[in-house]
C-alpha cells in the first residue's frame, strides 16, 4: 500500500515538476490561470527567488533564455 503523502509534500513535488517542465515564469503564469483566488505576485517572487543572489538570478535567466533560443532552432 502506498504511503500517505502530506498536502505540503504534494505541493512541493507539483511545483518542482512545473518549474522543471515549464520554467519558473511559465509555471507561475500557469498557476495564476488555474487559480481563482487573487495572488500577491511580489510574495510569489520573494518565495521563488528566496536565498538567491542577483548573480544567481541572472545566471538562471540567462540559462532560461539560452534554452528557449535552442528550442527555436
Description:
The chain has 73 residues and is an all-alpha fold. The protein has one domain. Helices cover 74% and strands 0% of the residues. It contains four helices and no strands. It has helices at 7-22, 24-34, 41-48, 54-72. Helix 1 (7-22) packs across helix 2 (24-34). The longest helix has 19 residues, at 54-72. The mean pLDDT is 84.
In short:
The chain is built from four helices and no strands. The chain has helices at residues 7-22, 24-34, 41-48, 54-72.
Largest sheet: none
Number of domains: 1
Name the overall outline.
globular
Q: Name the structural class.
A: mainly alpha
Count of alpha and pi helical runs: 4
Features:
mainly alpha; single chain; 73 residues
Would you spell out the secondary-structure blueprint of this structure?
Blueprint: H1 7-22, H2 24-34, H3 41-48, H4 54-72
Helix pairs in contact: 1-2
